[in-house]
Every structure is written in C-alpha cells, then in structure tokens.
Amino acid sequence: MASTAEIKSRIDSIMETRKITNAMYLIASTKLRRARSELEQTRPYFAALRSEIKRVFRTANDVDSHYFYPPDQEPEMPGTYGCLVITADKGLAGAYNQNVLKKAQRLLEAHSDTKLFVVGEYGRRFFTQHHVPIEQMFLYTAQNPTLDRAREISSLLLDQYDRGLLKKIFVIYTDMENGLTARVRSTRLLPFHRTYFAPPEKEKKIMVPFEFEPSVSAVLNGMMHSYLTGFIYSALIDSFCSEQQARMTAMDSANRNAEELLADLSLQYNRVRQAAITQEITEVTAGAKAQRKKRRKKEVQVS
Questions:
Q1: Is the pLDDT assigned to residue 200 strictly greater than 60?
Q2: pLDDT > 70 fraction of the chain, expressed in percent and rounded
C-alpha cells in the first residue's frame, strides 16, 4: 500500500492538472463565443449573395458556367480532385481531429488521384508522418480564421480549377449543427448542382428583363468567387467552433475524472493515515504495557 506521502504527492499532482484543464475549458469557451459572434456578423452578406445567385437563375435559364453541372445531369468527371482538409493545430479535443482525418482517408481510398490542401498543424503532421503527399500546406494557424485567409485559400483552389488541374473540389470540415453536437462533413465545393440555387417552385418568376454586363456568365462567375470565399470562411469558423466545443467537452470530462480521482485518493489517504495512527497507538500501548511488566518484575525481585 502506498504511503501517505506518496498519496499526498499524487493528490497535489492531480490538483495542478485540474487547474490546467479548467483554464483550458475557460479559454475554449471564450474563443467559442467570439468565433460564433464573428460568424453571425458575416452570414447575412453571404446569405444575400446566395439569394442574388438564385435571382440570376430565375432571370436567365440558359446560364452557361463551368462552375455548375449541366442542367439535369451529373456526368462522370475523371481526373484529379482537390480536397481541403481543416483540422486543429493541437490535440486535447477528443476525437475532433481523428474524425476529420478518417473522412479524408476514405476520400483518398475512393479516389486516389486527389490533391490535399491542409489547414491545421495536426493534419499536416499526420499526413507527413504517414507519407501522404500534400499539395499545399497553409502554414498559418487554424486558431484564427479570417476572411483574408479564406480568400487566399479560395483563390488558390479556384485558380487550379479554372486551369483544369482539378475536376472537383471537396472540403472536409466539422460542422457545428447546434450548441451540443457537431458532425464531420465532406462537401463538394465545385462543381455545383444548379438545383442548389434553384428558386422554390412557388416563387414567382421575374418577368422584368435584366441586363447583364458583359454577360450573365461573367456576372455569375464573379459572384461565385465571393460565394466560395464565404463558404470556405464559414467552414473555417464552423471547424474552429467545433474544435473549441470538443475541447470544452474533453476538459469538462477531465475535470470530472479529476474530481473522482481526488475523492478516491482522499478516502485512501484518510484510511492510510488512520491506519498509521492506529499502528502508532498500538505500538505506544504495547510499549507501555511492556514497561509495566518490567517494573512489576523488578519489584518482585527486590521483595
């Protein structure tokens, strides 16, 4: 059985660890609130932009854009795919990173000719250690998603898509569905289905003619650049929020485990301490009894 000093040392160690996990929980909750606020501030613009794209399809039926599948078709598109994988910079977030990487590995198994574009140190380290080639590593931290960084990623992916180097582009990220649950999504960024921007059937068609300069395709293509930037920015923010939520859950679980360990160790410490006190009392009592016997024996000898 461990001594009281050993148990006390372990209790002190767990208490120090609990301070760290509690601090990480508070930091994650603060970052989560700030990221949610930033996302809510930018969503109206991109929601309005999607509405304008729908308006283009309501106005013109013969839109020709390489960003969209042909009407009522989804042809096979052999060639190189691109995949943007969004992970965290570090662990201690439960299965957050592992779930994203598993989804990416399944995509690579389904289509081996896939170029990886990785955000997050955890993903970069994982693919490097497993000797999986990475087309582009975005070296800035995943802890501070900004619109400028989303625009940089979007420009790089669109450049390769426009030049025909990529036939399809996917993004794998963690979507925070609500305040409690998150799910890893593998979403095709390009090309889009036209039905994704199709107006509802009950919505009235626009009868007043619109003029597009220089052409409806050029206007639509320009809007798609901004829309893709917004989608990637939203994916970065969603992933960041999901990471903080996963870290909060992991740290809360660690705090509860620490409380249970401290309760067990405190009980064990009290038992060991009580046993030591009982042993000391027993030894003192036995010594006193021996001394009494010794004195009685001397008195008998003298008499």
A1: no
A2: 84
Query: Average pLDDT for residues 8-19, to the nearest whole number?
Result: 83
For residues 81 and 168, the answer to whether their CB atoms sit within 8 Å is: yes
SS (H, E, C) the chain: CCCHHHHHHHHHHHHHHHHHHHHHHHHHHHHHHHHHHHHHHHHHHHHHHHHHHHHHHHHCCCCCCCCECCCCCCCCCCCCEEEEEECCCCCCCCCHHHHHHHHHHHHHHHCCCEEEEEECHHHHHHHHHCCCCCCEEECCCCCCCCHHHHHHHHHHHHHHHHCCCCCEEEEEEEECCCCCCCEEEEEEEECECHHHHCCCCCCCCCCCCCCCCCCHHHHHHHHHHHHHHHHHHHHHHHHHHHHHHHHHHHHHHHHHHHHHHHHHHHHHHHHHHHHHHHHHHHHHHHHHHHHHHHHHHHHHHHC
Q: Region 34-39: what's the mean pLDDT?
A: 76
Give me the half-sphere count of Cα atoms (radius 13 Å) on the Cβ side of residue 91.
7
What is the pairing mode between strands 136-138 and 183-190?
A: unpaired
For residue 115 the two structure tokens come to 């170029």
